[in-house]
Design brief:
By secondary structure, the chain is an alpha+beta fold. Among the domains are: 1-32; 36-284, Biosynthetic peptidoglycan transglycosylase-like (Penicillin binding protein transpeptidase fold, Orthogonal Bundle), CATH 1.10.3810; 645-733, no CATH class; 744-829, Immunoglobulins (Immunoglobulin-like), CATH 2.60.40.10. The chain is 33% helix and 17% strand. It is built from 23 helices and 28 strands. A hairpin with a 2-residue loop joins strand 3 and strand 4. Helix 4 (123-132) packs across helix 5, helix 9 packs antiparallel against helix 10 (240-247) and helix 13 (295-316) packs antiparallel against helix 21 (610-625). The longest helix has 28 residues, at 2-29. The protein is elongated.
């Protein structure tokens, strides 16, 4: 019994101590709380300033001087009050200042998510927070907020509190209070607001930056407005019919009247800051933000987009355009124009297309080709651009008479009679096409085949690795993925292309260099390079996309994609039915992309392809952006010859014989490499006969017919063989003798004549005898060519006089001769003259 008493007294004492300590803690915490009578004396807020990359040009000031006009509750219509109460605090007129249900709900969510992100505050609590307290998220601040809310309710009536709330709360765009908000967004006083306008303004208070009518989240804003109307109907403030009518009400916003540079970029930065630091901190926390924006490039981009979009609207009915540029070496976003005119609210100019999801068309192809190159395919690998049925459930022969696809809107391979046999942009078929040509000329049929060979999942994974975040569900996409059947963001595509230009190293996209608050650095950019693609594969893609000769056939030699004085890699894209046109290109230090189209997805005219609609804008930007920079070369890739002939581009058979191109005989050890041609012998077949797509460099499949695509591809290939008149080479038709042109005895013979060593000049002569006409002769000291003779005459003397001041200390003179069929020889002046 005594033991139980001791335990009881122990816990009683412990409880008393904890209770007393808690009381003392609460009393200490709540000491010196502000007087609710001073509710209208708001704390001084400090604006957030957003600068360019130099930290000198102010792009935007968040907050600044508050726009506010105080009005009485009688001047605020009932529907505005009711909309606010419905969405912020349905029990406002019933509680004592604290929304207990909201707090319990918020606490539950906070505990589940292990943070203090939820609100749950009543209108009174929000008023207290905005008037007296900081934006700190903590239990102590919540306690202070609750106590002050109760005190405020005891001092003021509910209508007084609601009036103060509607005059105090921020609505975004430096606007505080319902009077300023009504005038800023709709140009009317609150008493003249419609039901739809009232619901929209009530929607802003939860997150003014995110839901701003001038920001990039207008779709979310409209959904929240409809939610407010639904809540009003549920609470009996309006009828369901009135709610439905207001949901369909057309809202017309006034254009923003603010000093802002690079608005789409700035709003993107502001969204980021709000998500990371909170609405209150961004609106009034005095942040100083240095961004990555290059003001000079931004000015160029805005001018190019405005002029180009105006031209496109007239020519091809494309009203909008967007541009983004990134430094691949750092991941820094240098410029971003999200739409033609940010301030044209009536045409959704504030919508940021650069960060919106759009289909990329053929601009997605480089990721597929890079995946294929990783698996052993090469730019020389040949695929057949012939009418091909890709649905194994369909008759392969249908493509000979049916050119238009019966695919669904996404181009997925379907069962039954929904066949898929895509065509090309120019409605032509080319037969055998190398992967270099296929990518450079953006040929669809061979690209769809390559996606099947490379694998859709692996191609998507590579795109993800390179920075594309929107490809969440690979099961959604079929073979049309390579033609742009997925949705991506222009900014992320530009960043991913930059990975190619940066030798396969990803620098994550960033638009913030530094965020400071007073003397405290809250955030500072740190380089985070991450290799995501083999260096040589990236260089192969760069080599192909910058190969102007490979583009010719679909693109003109002097198209907007060609830069005569520097190598620039570039790819265009056009979606089916011409909804989107793209051009993305890059150098090692600058990647830029342009999108052209209509925000409402209306198609542009058929001549509005990527090269005609988007490329001129892209080229105009690149010309000016690169004007003052030195030309950069892409490092050359290393090309290995795979063992399998089919991967080297030899499709005529799987056995090869080396033939000399000059003599047309078997190549010998003396035949120069550049004159050797690998000739295939045997029965020609399509690629699936020779490779297993799960292991392209591995053994030939024993049963190629087990591949679901084999029958269709092979049938299409054999139809081409039959109709083209192609004849394969047999072993009997091969030459029996070896190359007799490239032999040691046929090499040019060089004879060095009399040498003369004068005080200031070294002289000698040479002549060349040759069986074949000569192409060039070169005289060198070491690695330095001092004399080159084009088309030298056989057996003619050529005198050489060299000033001794131009000679190295221990010169070795060499003379090289090359004939027209590739034979060469070299002679040396021995001993070298003593100087």
């Amino acid at each position: 019994m005594k033991r139980l008493k001791k335990i009881f007294f122990f816990f009683f004492a412990l409880f008393f101590i904890c209770f007393a300590a808690g009381g003392i803690f609460i009393a200490y915490t709540l000491r010196n709380l502000p007087d609710p009578a001073r509710i209208n004396e708001r704390q001084v807020n400090e604006s957030t300033k957003i600068y360019d990359r130099t930290g000198k040009t102010l792009l935007y000031e968040v907050h600044g001087e508050e726009k506010r006009t105080v009005i009485t509750l009688e001047d605020i219509p009932n529907q505005m009050r009711q909309a606010t109460i419905s969405v912020e605090d349905a029990g406002f007129y019933k509680h004592n200042g604290i929304n207990y249900k909201g707090i319990v709900r918020a606490l539950w969510v906070d505990l589940a998510s292990k943070n203090l992100s939820q609100g749950g505050s009543s209108i009174t609590q929000q008023l207290v927070k905005n008037s007296f307290l900081t934006s700190e998220r903590s239990i102590i601040r919540k306690m202070k907020e609750a106590v002050l809310a109760i005190r405020l309710e005891k001092r003021y009536s509910k209508d007084d509190i609601l009036e103060m709330y509607l005059n105090q709360i921020p609505y975004g765009s430096n606007t505080y209070g319902i009077q300023a908000a009504s005038q800023t967004f709709f140009g009317v006083d609150p008493k003249d607001l419609t039901l739809g306008e009232s619901a929209l303004l009530a929607s802003l208070s939860q997150a003014p930056s995110f839901y701003s009518p001038y920001g990039s989240h207008t779709d979310e804003l409209m959904k929240r407005k409809d939610y407010v109307l639904g809540r009003m109907a549920d609470l009996g403030y309006i009828t369901g019919r009135e709610a439905d009518d207001a949901k369909h009400e057309k809202l017309v916003f006034l254009p923003p009247r603010q000093n802002i540079l690079a608005p789409h970029f700035v709003m993107m930065v502001k969204d980021y800051l709000t998500q990371k630091y909170g609405e209150d901190t961004v609106e009034s926390g005095g942040l100083v933000v240095t961004t990555t924006l290059d003001v000079s490039l931004q000015s160029i981009a805005e001018r190019v987009i405005e002029e180009g979009a105006k031209r496109n609207e007239t020519l091809i009915k494309a009203k909008n355009a967007a541009l983004a540029a990134v430094n691949p070496k750092t991941g820094e976003v240098l410029t971003l124009v999200g739409s033609r005119d940010y301030f044209d609210i009536q045409h959704e100019g504030n919508f940021n297309v650069a960060t919106a999801l759009r289909q990329p068309g053929s601009a997605f192809k480089p990721f597929v080709y890079a995946t294929a190159f990783k698996k052993g395919f090469t730019p020389d690998t040949v695929l057949f651009d012939v009418p091909t049925e890709f649905n194994p459930g369909c008759n392969p022969g249908a493509t000979s008479t049916i050119v238009e696809s019966k695919k669904n809107s996404r181009g997925l391979i379907l069962e039954g009679d929904k066949c898929y046999h895509p065509g090309n942009y120019d409605e032509k078929f080319r037969g055998p096409v190398s992967l270099r040509t296929s990518l450079a000329q953006s040929i669809n049929v061979t690209s769809v085949k390559l996606l099947y060979l490379a694998g859709a999942n692996d191609s998507i994974q590579l795109a993800r690795d390179m920075g594309i975040t929107s490809l969440a569900d690979p099961s959604r996409y079929g073979l049309s993925l390579v033609l742009g059947g997925a949705e991506v963001k222009l900014l992320e595509m530009v960043g991913a292309y930059g990975v190619f230009g940066n030798d396969g190293v990803l620098n994550p996209l960033t638009y913030i260099l530094e965020v400071r608050r007073g003397d405290q650095t809250l955030e500072k950019k740190e380089d985070q390079p991450r290799p995501v693609l083999d260096t040589n594969i990236a260089r192969i893609i760069n080599d192909v996309l910058s190969d102007n000769e490979a583009r010719i056939g679909v693109f003109q030699r002097n198209s907007s994609l060609y830069f005569p004085n520097r190598r620039v890699a570039v790819k265009t894209g056009t979606t089916q039915e011409y909804h989107d046109a793209w051009t993305i290109g890059f150098t090692p230090s600058l990647a830029a992309g342009v999108w052209v189209g209509n925000n409402n997805n209306d198609p542009i005219q058929q001549k509005g392809s990527g090269v005609l609609a988007a490329a001129p804008l892209w080229r105009a930007f690149m010309d000016q952006a690169l004007a003052t920079s030195t030309s950069e070369e892409f490092p050359k890739p290393e090309y290995q010859k795979p063992e399998k002939p089919i991967l080297r581009g030899i499709w005529q058979g799987n056995t090869t014989v080396q033939i000399d191109l000059i003599s047309k005989k078997l190549a010998s050890s003396s035949t120069p490499q550049e004159f050797i041609d690998d000739v295939a012998v045997g029965d020609p077949h399509d690629i699936l006969f020779w490779i297993d797509r799960s292991d392209p460099v591995g053994p030939k499949p024993e049963h190629p017919e087990d591949d679901a695509q084999y029958v269709s591809w092979e049938w299409a290939f054999q139809q081409w063989v039959k109709n083209s008149g192609f004849k394969s080479m047999s072993f009997d038709s091969l030459p029996k003798n070896y190359d007799d042109v490239h032999t040691p005895e046929n090499r040019p013979v060089i004879t060095i004549g009399l040498t003369t060593d004068l005080a200031d000049t070294f002289s000698f002569s040479f002549r060349i005898s040759s069986k074949f006409s000569l192409k060039v002769a070169e005289v060198s000291f070491g690695d330095t060519v001092i004399k080159s003779v084009a088309w030298p005459v056989v057996n003619q003397d050529y005198p050489i006089n060299v000033p001794k001041k131009d000679m190295p200390e221990s010169p070795t003179v060499s003379i090289k001769a090359y004939d027209m069929v590739g034979n060469s020889n070299e002679a040396f002046l021995t001993p070298a003259p003593q100087l």
